[in-house]
Amino acid sequence: MAKQKRKSGEKLKKKKAGGDKNVQRKKAVKVVAAAVKKSGGKEMLRRTKIRVIGIGGGGGTIAAEIAPYVRRVDFWTANTDSQALKKTGKICRRFLFGQKITGGLGCGSDPRMGQLAAKQAGDKITALFRGVDLCILISCLGGGTGSGAISEFARLAKEAGCITLGVFTLPFRFEGDKKMQAAKQALARTIPHLSASVIFPNEKIFQVLDAQTGFQAALSATNTILATDLKNLMETVYLPGLINIDFADLRATLAGEGKLAYLASASGEGDNRAENTCKALLAHPLNEYDARGADRILFNITSENNISVAEVEYISKTISALNPRAKIIFGISQRVIPAHGLTITFLATGVAQPAKSPENKRVKHAKKIERKEKPAAVQTVPPPAEEKEAIKLAAKQAVAKVAKKESTGKEKKQKTEKAKMSQKKAKLEQKKRATKSRRKEETAKKTVVSKGNGAVELIVGADANQGNDREGLFSKLRKNALDLKREAEVAEQEQLANERKWDVPAFLRRRV
Questions:
Q1: Which pLDDT score is estimated for 13?
Q2: What DSSP string describes 214-282?
């Protein structure tokens, strides 16, 4: 009986344990079912999040016009002007910042105010980049909000670990050199914080459209070109293909900092569609630079099922010829395209810097004139404390380098001058020595000798060396005129005495 009770107790415990396990399994199944139901029956995979932010009035307008064409992308417009944000419509989300500085108004074409407003809203701006994989920053440079705030947005996006692509437009010529200078300064502050940058000068509009085209229509046309390029790039990343390109490929192409990028897309049809599409692709109407020298290239070919191997080979060779050493990623997608056409989406980073154009020369010439005239100083954005210290250190280093160069130059000059002086002194000493030696030789070679009758004889050369026995003759040269006269009188008297001794006829004798 006791054994039966024990067995029955063990069976009850097993039943309870099994029941607990069943309950746990049912709970886990319910949780999974709820998650699947919430995700629409699809697998729970992390979706790539791409965000486009238009900064300033011009950037917000471009973002609002692009938004209807590009799907699966989150669009925002950021501005200090509350009225300008209302014009962007309901498609883009609005981000107002800098109310304490601007009071809900614009920056009045003052980049300094735009940068201060962005710094004040640093925490709010950082929140825009949380959980974002790729952020595309769009701005029309030359004004106040866009030129001032874009550098802060780029810096905060980089700190948040977000890949960033900058799309910028430069002002027209008729807007003046001041706006162009502000745009160039904004680019210099912003590009180092971005992964890659695409730059479109507004002046290119006149090469695309007729000069009589309306101003708003011309701007819309450029926005449409940019919208088409971004739309095709997003479709390449999000939609599957025969040779698929995903966000990992895009991230590998944009890897790095401060690179210049070339973004374009083109379509063609007909028998020579591959050749025509490549020509249109590499001659983008808005770019002032080409894609030659790019170190990373991504391109995708989109067509129906009728694309041939020869067309793929021609497109690949044409693009790889831009830089044979570049890292190239390509894909092929099959979608229905009107008129059996062909579309190529192209992104290249690390392209060569644009060559100096007449526009750049004109701006530099204007800067030289401004420096000579010394106009009023343009208000610039004060850098933060760290940047100030870095600027001071850089200035000190530059001054030290200049001082070193000047000191080394002075030392070199002094050394050369000393060497020249020493050479001159040596030459003079050599000349003096030569003259002394010549004089000694001449004095040694020349000897003056006087004869008994008052004549003087000059002995030169070897005869002078034989004059050791004639040393007494030199003493005669020291006699004065009276001594010589006396000697002559004595000689005459001796001659007369000798004549008296001679036997001379009487008529020849001298009468006394």
A1: 56
A2: -HHHHHHHHHHHHHHHHHHHHHHHHS--SB---HHHHHHHH-SSSEEEEEEEEEE-STTHHHHHHHHHS
Q: Are 61 and 78 in contact (CB under 8 A)?
A: no
Buried b (16+ CB within 10 A) or exposed e, 90-113: eebebbbbbeebbeeebbebbbbb
Segment (H or E) for 78: strand 74-79
Q: Are 382 and 288 in contact (CB under 8 A)?
A: no
Q: Which amino acid is at 343?
A: T
d(CA 151, CA 133): 19
| Residues contacting 124, CB < 8 A, separation 6+ | 95, 97
Q: From 269, 304, 270, 299, select the one nearest 282 (Cα to Cα).
A: 299
Q: Which two tokens stand for residue 235?
A: 């479709």
Question: Does residue 165 contact residue 198 with C-beta atoms inside 8 Å?
Answer: yes
pLDDT higher than threshold 70 for residue 23: no
List % helix, strand, coil for the chain (3-state, nearest 5): 55, 15, 30
Report d(CA 119, CA 111) in Å as an integer. 12
Q: Which two tokens stand for residue 508?
A: 């020849």
Nearest-angstrom CA–CA distance, 67 and 60: 11
Q: Which two tokens stand for residue 261?
A: 């990028």
Q: Which residue shows structure tokens 């490549």? A: 278
Tokens 């994989």 sit on residue: 133
Closest CA to 156 of 193, 189, 185, 181: 193
Whole-model pTM: value is 0.61
Classify 122 as helix, strand or coil.
helix
Radius of gyration of the chain (CA): 52
**Which has more pLDDT, 450 or 323?**
323
Element (H or E) spanning 456, and its range? Answer: strand 456-460
Q: And the tokens for 357? A: 């154009």
Structure confidence by residue, pLDDT tens digits, 124-142: 999 999 999 999 999 999 9
In terms of phi and psi (left: phi > 0; alpha: psi -120 to 50; beta: otherwise), the region of 269 is: beta
Structure tokens at 152: 């802060």
* pLDDT tens-digit series, residues 74-107: 999 999 999 888 888 778 999 999 988 888 888 8
Identify the CA nearest to 12 among candidates 25, 24, 20, 1: 20
| DSSP type of residue 341 | -
Q: At what angle do helices 111-120 and 177-190 cross, to 10 degrees?
A: 30
What is the spatial distance between Cα 433 and Cα 241, in angstroms, rounded to a whole number? 97
